[in-house]
Please model this.
Amino acid sequence: LDFYVETVPGSRIESVERFGPDGPGPEGTIIRAHAVIAGQKVMVHDSFVTHGFDFTPSWSFFLDVEDRETFDRLFAA
Model:
C-alpha cells in the first residue's frame, strides 16, 4: 500500500488492522486495510493460507492519466 500511496496521485491509506501475536495470521500481517488508490476505494488483506497453486495470482489497476509524462513515470514504477 505504501508503494501505491507514494507513487499514484490521489491515493491514501484510510485504515489498517494487523494480526497480533495470537494470530491466526503471522503477527504484523494485514487482517484488513482500506485505501484509496487513484480515487478508487480498495480493501486488501494478507493471506496466510497455503494455496493449491504455484503461481502468484494478481490484479491490476487501470489508471487514466493526464499526460504522457505521468504515464511513463507510473509505468516505470
Remarks:
- Residues 68-76 form the longest helix (9 residues).
- The mean pLDDT is 89.
